[in-house]
Amino acid sequence: MQNVRYSVVIPVYNEEEVIRETYWRLKSVMDQTGESYELLFVNDGSRDQTAELIVAMGEKDPSVTLIQFSRNFGHQVAITAGMDYARGDAVIVIDADLQDPPELMLGMIAKWREGYDVVYAKRSERKGETWFKRQTASAFYRILKRMTEIDIPLDTGDFRLLDRKVCDEMKLLPEKNRYVRGLVSWVGFRQTAVEYVRDERFAGESKYPLKKMLKLSMDGMTSFSSKPLKAAGIAGVLISAAGFVYLLVVLIEKWFTRVTVPGWSSLIALQIIFSGCILMFLGVIGEYLGRIYDEVKQRPLYIVSSVYTKKSEDQPALR
Ligand code: UDP
Ligand code: MG
Fold it and tell me: What keywords are annotated for this sequence in UniProt (predicted)?
């Protein structure tokens, strides 16, 4: 099997408006390296013309490969599939919407040549995203950093370069609810950053609605910290200590004073607060339990319905 120097992994989900432009930008940047490369598009169950457009590009360009999922499995899974199929000595993951400027890949490659194994792109600024998205993302990265022992760099997405050996280690991690950027940190090796300004989307809308953002952040938290579970214990101890002190106060009042307490509303308030706490922590346990269940089921991470490339006999076997 012929080897390639660079694999560019591009997860795509309903990106018909941008995919052609993305292809040309990626191609012109990768041609500048003067070395061999492949463009691995992972179609995460798009319902528009994305796949057809990629196949049309692939007709004329053997560096294009399309990995077709049988349905939408999510961005993180699409990236994982791309890494599984990548053959290059270095693997670069990039979004399809040109928010990650392809030109930065050259900078990443330069760092890789210096001997770094992971080069991640750190966002110094984010353009064209809502105030809400920027604030919640920034808060999430900071909270996660405090909650975990693993050093996950702040303000980085999945735009990064991985050396072959890092990619091979990533393939050995079987977990289902994946937070890829955390896993890359977990794997270790020599890592460094290049900074960039995150552009606006070239066209179309974000494919990350609030629901998917919440899922990603919960995966990040639960995969890399068990502190939320411990918080329940700590809260329990504090609340019962307070309750005990209050009991003493009540007893002293009963024995030594004549204060009578009407106290209905305070009882109801406390009742609601504590039931709320209990439900909340049951929810936390549920989040972990659900993920444990996902692991136990041992289902494959994704299902590939077809792989398209001009030279399909060169493709590695399905996982
Ligand atoms: N994406 C995907 N599957 C999904 C959602 C998104 O493969 O279920 C891809 C999408 O096509 C894009 C990348 O993941 O290439 C990042 O998505 P998007 O740009 O919509 O996210 P945002 O930049 O708004 O966070
Ligand atoms: Mg985007």
Answer: Glycosyltransferase, Membrane, Transferase, Transmembrane, Transmembrane helix
The structure tokens listed for 277 are: 């706490």
Q: Is 208 in the pocket of ligand 1 (CB under 6 A)?
A: yes
Instruction: Please give the Cα distance from 219 to 66 (Å, whole number).
Output: 27
Which ligand places an atom closest to the C-alpha of 209? 1
Ligand closest to 212 (CA) is 1
Residue 207 — φ and ψ, nearest 5°?
A: -95, 15
Q: Give the DSSP H/E element, type plus range, for residue 305.
A: strand 304-309
- In this prediction, the answer to ipTM > 0.90 reads yes
pLDDT in tens, 247-293: 888 888 878 887 766 777 778 878 888 888 888 888 888 889 888 88
- Over residues 130-161, the pLDDT tens digits come to 888 888 888 888 888 888 888 888 888 899 99
Contact 101, 18 (CB under 8 A): no
Strands (E) across 44-151 are located at 64-69, 90-93, 118-126
Around ion ligand 2, which residues have CB less than 5 A away? 97, 99
Please tell me what DSSP assigns to residue 128. S
> How much is the pTM?
0.78
Amino acid at 27: K
3-class DSSP assignment, residue 92 = strand
The pair of three-digit structure tokens given for residue 91, joined into one six-digit string: 């693997």
What is the spatial distance between Cα 15 and Cα 303, in angstroms, rounded to a whole number?
A: 20
Residue nearest to atom 2 of ligand 1 (CA): 75
Beta bridge partners of 195: 122
**Residue showing tokens 């996660």:** 144
3 state SS of 66: strand
